Request: fold
Amino acid sequence: MSDLLNVAKISGTHHLKGAVKVVSHMDDIELLIGNKVIVETPAGLKRVLTVTSAGFLMGNKAVLEFEEITNKVDAAALAGSMILVKRELIGIGEDEYLASDIIGMDVVELNGESIGKVTDVFETPAHEIYVVNEGAEEIMIPGIEKFIKEIDFENRKITVELIDGMKPEKE
Reply:
């Protein structure tokens, strides 16, 4: 697992003073206030910025302000960027992970057959659901021990055991 976590994506500007709107992957975005974050643009350029203000608007949409960004033009240049933080900053331990750690992992069955890649993870009251895509097909796998046999962060691979009916029938 990387030491850096993707905690939000900048979706656009908010007002004229350089605030940005983000889609947050965090429950408590206010943990970022007073801390330095890495903002990585879609082109891969990285910049260290200091969060001076953070708060939720609605659902997972939030507004952040940075000490170094003071106008709408500079803020607009950050659209589409990822906000990365050190894992320790938000209290994620060695044996814990976020949905963003799982997205992009290869998913294979116990027999080694590839099922696809994790494209999304969403929470239900009972457990997480991993959305796995293989071409146009989509499989939803409950994040419980019955189906998830191993999550190998080093090799970015999840080994699963599916039951009949979980995979689309091959033509």
The first helix runs from residue 72 to 76. The chain has a mean pLDDT of 87. The first strand starts at residue 4 and ends at 14.
